[in-house]
Amino acid sequence: MKNRRIILSRYPRGVPQPEDFELVETDVTELNEDEVLVETHCLSMDPAPRLRMDGAAKFPPPLPLGEVVMGRGAGIVRASRFSGLTVGDRVAGELGWQEHARVPGAQLRKVNPNAPLQSALGVLGPSGITAYFLIHDAAKVRAGDTVVICGAAGSVGSVAAQLAREVGARVVGIVGGADQARFVREELGAAVAVNYRSAGLDADLASACPGGATVFLDSVGGSLHNSVLASIADHARIIAFGYISAYHNVATVQAEYGSVYQIIRRRATLSGFLIGDYANRFGEALEYLSAALSAGTLKSFEHCVEGLERAPAAFAALFSGEPIGKQLVRVRTQTSE
Hints:
By secondary structure, this protein is of the alpha/beta class. Helix content is 24%, strand content 26%.
């Protein structure tokens, strides 16, 4: 059996370009004990792998050139030497940018058989789980809060905005353009959408948060972080769960995240967030999110492109602020199940 895969052919400078990757064809080799062969149906485009696409990276370490690009995926088990999975099981995990993946079975999770397979990568996967714990645990959002969400139109932000509204908070979504602004207002119910590209960003944020933001969910860092801090309330809760503004420069990532002056002045709380800390409670989050989807109080928003060969362009789009909802690449249709 042949397997098409996308490898990293050179370390990108700035936003990844198609020339940084190569589509190659290899043979699928025999499984080892406790491995399974997964036919990839869809891939999740997430910004974190960009941190490993740098030869100077130390943590996480750089992805070696010539290796398949890392990435979460969902698919169907086609062969198994792992007792916990059988042929036909629907699974999700670290599959990489390829049509077939040999994976240790213990590293995969079975997914909801009653939901679309791709939802295991979005609202019923890491994006939704992250949003759940950001809102309910890390920030403890409550009725009356003003919640500023960076990347409100994205995979985590679009779920977090809905969950915040559900508990009675007022949502201010930071977006990258007019289409995203309409989306967060009309589909997510945000009170205000603020364009981070606006020349009057600071004034727009002040107007959007007249009483100050009581919660700030920040996946960006850098200058945007500083702009939002100018509009926080006393005793605000700030949760830093990403720093995409610096993902193209390892040295910048390891330097200053953003200003701390306003944190001191407003006696705010700044907390770091890693989704892995909640691993033993993922089931709780998935149960809540699944029920909310079934009840119609939570919606799933996805942007899907067709074809493995389009993965590099879909990945690059994450850093331009273009996609709305979860960015996915469909490798294979589910008709082959």
